[in-house]
Structures
1.
Amino acid sequence: MSAPYAAPDRTAAPLAGRTALVTGGSRGVGRAVALRLAADGAAVAVNYRRDGAAADEVVAAIEAAGGRARAYCAPVDDLESISALPERVQADLGPVDLLVSNAGTAGRGTAVADTDDAEYLRLLRVHVLGPLALVRALLPGMRAAGRAGRRHRRLERDRRHRTAGRRGLHDGEVRPGNGRPHARP
């Protein structure tokens, strides 16, 4: 018989000493993530595009609970601004250890065939190019601190093991249908 469910011990701050940057952190899911990261002990950089009052409210809520936070206006689609953000955060809160790329925007509701190129470029800047610029700006510091890459490698190793287990493969056994090229009979 299994033990009854016990709530996790939240008295220890698992993210104490870490700094998190949450893009789109002033509202909705980003706000909830920022508050949770702070509750777990992280200092939180709340990034926003235009609603400074909402970002200030998130910061105030974090500080009222005893946490550390700052708000930063840096639109994700402004590549120069977003690339400079990690230095600003480091000066105030310390080097960024965690990135939550949450900022986003919706299309204007037009059909794909009727959407002009400028709209596609706007969406690409927000959802692809801006986050990529931010990751590129953060990676050198994360790598220097030994924080980049380990999680990805562990996830990849676990994925390979799960895939092998589903296919009944052990010790490098190779069979048709295991993802490797083979001839069909």
2.
Amino acid sequence: MITGKAEIIRSSDALDAAEKAADIFSSAAMQSFESGKIFTVAFSGGKTPLPFFKVLLHRKLDWSRIAVFQVDERFVPQDSEDNNFRMLYENLLSQTGSPDSLIFRMKTEFPDPDSAAAEYEKNLKDFFAGVEPPVFDFIHLGMGDDGHTASLFPDSPLLDDTVKLISGTMPPEISKPAVRRITMTYKLINAARHRLFLVSGKAALGAKAAVLPELWKQRFPAAGIEKSNTTWVL
């Protein structure tokens, strides 16, 4: 059941949005460091977060204490321009000095997305050592024009799944690119301590999504994300 009320922060442009998102990320990371913990984060794909990644590179963060996971991945080769991890690595992780042991890639070398999802879910459970469901400190999300978030698309059977943490899925044919995906589910995303939507350039749509009730999730999947402890940077 969705509870609480999301926080909405408006920005003047993409760079301002990236700075505000980086402020929130850095604050959450420092709180985790102060408690002596590894900061656990999952990043979404696409090109929208690229300014956010660039700003993060200028923040004084100890990436040796940050465990990085993926929210979703397109089931394409790692060297494809459409591969989310490639964008994440080239624009952020290759420059942070993050240890390989704290980078968890969704692998597309598997025969199909479902087997890749099963392996990723096992890795999650191993890392979080029996916590069910695993609780991330921070999950970064985006949103498409159709209201999808992660790779949770309108009318997908995954929108009603309460068991899986990670799943293979197929987006609608109109999606670009219309390729199979691996994605976190609501169960995992909504268990996080904090969620950040970065949707600069879609202020009106984001403001709508931030307040839509859960019953809209089949038509507008972002509405299925927990409202409390969720920040929308528009």
